[in-house]
Amino acid sequence: MNIGILGAGAWGTALAIHFALHSHKVWLWTHNVRHAQQLRQERVNRRYLPDFVLPDNLAVVDEFAAADLCIIATPVAALRESARKLQAAGLGEVPVLAACKGFEQQTGLLPQQVLAEVMPANKCIGILSGPSFAQELAQQLPCAVTLASENFAWIQALATVLNNTVLRLYANADVVGAAVGGAVKNVMAIATGIADGLHCGINARVALMTRGMAEISRLNQALGGLSATLMGLSGMGDLILTCTGSLSRNRRVGLLLAEGKSLPEALTELGHVAEGVYTVEEVCRQATSLGVDMPITTILQQLFEGRTEVRALAEILMERAPRVE
Ligand SMILES: NC(=O)C1=CN([C@@H]2O[C@H](COP(=O)(O)OP(=O)(O)OC[C@H]3O[C@@H](n4cnc5c(N)ncnc54)[C@H](OP(=O)(O)O)[C@@H]3O)[C@@H](O)[C@H]2O)C=CC1
Ligand SMILES: O=C(CO)COP(=O)(O)O
Questions:
Q1: What is the reported pTM?
Q2: pLDDT on residue 184
Q3: What residues are in contact with ligand 1 under a 6 Å CB criterion?
Q4: How far is CA 106 from its chain centroid?
Q5: Which domains occur in the chain, in start order?
Q6: 275 is in an annotated binding site
Q7: Nearest CA to ligand 1 atom 43
Q8: Which mean pLDDT values do the consecutive 10-residue runs of the chain (325 residues) have?
Q9: CA 97 to CA 53: how far, in whole Å?
Q10: Ligand 2 pocket test: which of 76, 128, 129, 133 has the largest number of ligand atoms within 8 Å of its C-beta?
Q11: Is the dihedral angle over the CA atoms 78, 142, 243, 178 positive or is it negative?
Q12: Was 170 annotated as part of a binding site?
């Protein structure tokens, strides 16, 4: 296939390298012209994914070229703008996947809903989600992810075409469930990072992950996603990876907060996007309007707004009234 990838951060670059190594012809675009020049000159993404050479069949472009599939791998905050650029370039009906995880701020839309708004004539809109650290995919280590779309015939065919011995793709028609799991697990990764950084122990980590999944399930149900999807790669799979894996940037933010860093300091030190930070506010807004109880997300919102301190989090969560499971 001819695959176009928007966003030359860690994830866009890893996907581009992976698909190029598996015989697809790939173009990679970044909004940052100087970064594009550096990529073309050195053939290595020094800023976001060092140590991996860009294969010859991967072109770093300034203008979008024709494509059979476009993948938007920018942060969610840049998804709408990137989709608009595709639409303006005449690629608005090319099959498209969002590879970012989160809710759009202000609108509260999930990635596939943003794409549908910007590209109303596109019949093939989906998301790529699931447990997948960029570093490991770039290394060509085995990985399994979810491709989800309301257009199930298309997404199933796409999963078959893209499937290879390194990346196994599972098709799913429940795009809401897949996107909710992918978005909110980042919030739980920040929470477990904090707990681990404060040496609360493994019991606490697993309690947060499990009760985190309970609150993700409540939100998912209220938004119309299926609970079965949360048992899969884009739900439980990505929750486990991100809450326990040392490569997770969201988990790292939690660890830095536990060290006493402020949120801006933690994000500067990270140098990458941590979507959970932006997801917290939107999830709280939706949870309130839908009447969904999300105590872990709510406590993080209080922390980010300076209404509580990192050392008080465990006590606040543990002091809540007993509930049934
Ligand atoms: N890294 C990973 O392992 C995985 C990440 N994801 C998801 O992929 C998405 C991207 O993450 P990741 O690549 O890791 O992030 P990074 O922080 O590594 O890179 C972000 C990239 O987005 C670019 N960008 C920022 N603003 C814009 C904009 N307005 N228009 C176009 N591009 C922009 C940045 O460019 P510049 O800095 O030059 O401005 C940079 O190239 C996130 O939603 C993340 O959750 C999903 C699975 C795995
Ligand atoms: O989504 C991811 C892996 O599936 C990446 O998580 P982080 O953004 O926390 O690194």
A1: 0.98
A2: 98
A3: 7-12, 30-32, 35, 48, 73-76, 78, 81-82, 99-102, 132-134, 272-273, 275
A4: 18
A5: 2-173 (3.40.50.720), 176-319 (1.10.1040.10)
A6: yes
A7: 100
A8: 98 98 98 98 97 97 97 98 98 98 96 98 98 98 98 98 98 98 98 98 98 98 98 98 98 98 98 97 97 98 96 93 93
A9: 24
A10: 133
A11: positive
A12: no
Compute the distance from residue 10 Cα to the ligand 1 centre, in Å.
6
Position 84 scores a pLDDT of 98
Q: How far apart are CA 152 and CA 203, in angstroms?
A: 39
Determine the atom of ligand 1 nearest the C-alpha atom of 275. Answer: 45
> Locate tokens 């476009």: which residue?
70
Predicted pLDDT at 318: 94
SS (H, E, C) the chain: CEEEEECCCHHHHHHHHHHHHCCCEEEEECCCHHHHHHHHHHCEECCCEEEEECCCCEEEECCCCCCCEEEECCCHHHHHHHHHHHHHCCCCCCCEEECCCCCCCCCCCCHHHHHHHHCCCCCCEEEEECCCCHHHHHCCCCEEEEEECCCHHHHHHHHHHHCCCCEEEEEECCHHHHHHHHHHHHHHHHHHHHHHHCCCCHHHHHHHHHHHHHHHHHHHHHHCCCHHHHCCHHHHHHHHHHHHCCCCHHHHHHHHHHCCCCHHHHHHHHCCCCHHHHHHHHHHHHHHHHCCCCHHHHHHHHHHCCCCCHHHHHHHHHCCCCCCC
